[in-house]
Design goal:
The protein is mainly beta. The protein has one helix and 14 strands. Strands 1, 2, 3, 4, 6, 7 and 9 form a seven-stranded mixed sheet that branches. The protein starts with a helix and ends in a 14-residue tail after the last strand.
Length: about 220
C-alpha cells in the first residue's frame, strides 16, 4: 500500500511539472513560441502566426526574418517577447504569393531590400514610412521610393516600374526598375515624409492614404 501511495505521489508531481513547462512556453498573448537555441535565440511562431523573428545584435529589439504561415492577411505585431519589433529583413516575405494584405506597425524603422519580392497577390499594405528607413528627408543621399521594398527581380504577377531615387538635389538622380505586384491597389502610410518621386509611375494603385502627421510631400511624389 505504501509503495502504491508513493507511486501515486510521483505521478502527481510529474503532471504538475509538465503543466508548469507548458505554461512557461506560452507568450502573454496566448501564442506558443519555439526557442530552438535557448534564451536569446530566434523565436518562431507556431502555425497560427508563421512569423519568424530574429533578435537584434544589441538584444533590444526583434526583426521579422521570414514568414512561413499560410494566412493571406498578416498583421505584424509591434512587440515580440517583450521587445519592440523594429525591422523587416531583406527577402523576409519573398515569394509569399498567397499574401493579400500586410500591416506593418509604427515601431518598424527599417525594411530590407526586396522584403516583399514575389508577393504577386498583394492587394493592400500599411507602412510606417516609404522607402528603406524611417526619418529620411530630402537632405539624405539615398531617398528610396516605394518600389524599394519589392526589389528589382522580375516575377509572374509583378509590374515593372521605373522609379527614381534622389540624392541631396535632383541633379544626383538615379533610376531603377522595381517589380511591384500588379494586384496592389491600396497603400496606407502612417508616418514619415513622402519624398520626391516616392510613388512615381505606380499606376496600379487606386488608393493612397496619408494621415495628418505626414507633413512633407516632395515634388513629383505621385507623377
Amino acid at each position: 500500500m505504501k509503495k502504491n501511495f508513493l507511486l501515486f505521489i510521483c505521478v502527481l508531481l510529474c503532471a504538475a511539472l509538465l503543466a508548469a513547462v507548458i505554461t512557461a512556453c506560452n507568450d502573454e498573448d496566448g501564442t506558443q513560441t519555439v526557442k530552438p537555441g535557448g534564451e536569446g535565440q530566434t523565436g518562431e511562431e507556431l502555425p497560427d502566426g508563421g512569423l519568424v523573428f530574429e533578435l537584434a545584435s544589441d538584444g533590444e529589439s526583434y526583426a521579422v526574418a521570414d514568414y512561413t504561415g499560410t494566412s493571406t492577411e498578416v498583421v505584424i505585431p509591434s512587440v515580440h517577447e517583450g521587445l519592440p519589433v523594429m525591422s523587416i529583413g531583406q527577402y523576409a516575405f519573398r515569394g509569399c504569393s498567397g499574401l493579400t494584405s500586410v500591416i506593418i506597425p509604427d515601431t518598424v524603422t527599417s525594411i530590407g531590400d526586396s522584403a516583399f519580392s514575389g508577393c504577386s497577390s498583394l492587394e493592400s499594405i500599411t507602412l510606417p514610412f516609404v522607402g528603406a528607413e524611417a526619418g529620411k528627408t530630402s537632405s539624405y543621399t539615398y531617398q528610396y521610393p516605394f518600389g524599394y521594398i519589392f526589389g528589382t527581380s522580375s516575377y509572374t504577377g509583378g509590374t515593372a516600374v521605373k522609379q527614381y531615387y534622389y540624392g541631396r538635389d535632383p541633379s544626383s538622380t538615379t533610376s531603377t526598375t522595381y517589380y511591384i505586384p500588379s494586384s496592389l491597389r491600396s497603400v496606407t502610410v502612417t508616418g514619415g515624409n513622402i519624398l520626391r518621386g516616392a510613388f512615381g509611375y505606380c499606376s496600379m494603385l487606386t488608393s493612397i492614404t496619408i494621415p495628418d502627421n505626414v507633413t512633407s510631400i516632395g515634388d513629383s511624389a505621385f507623377v
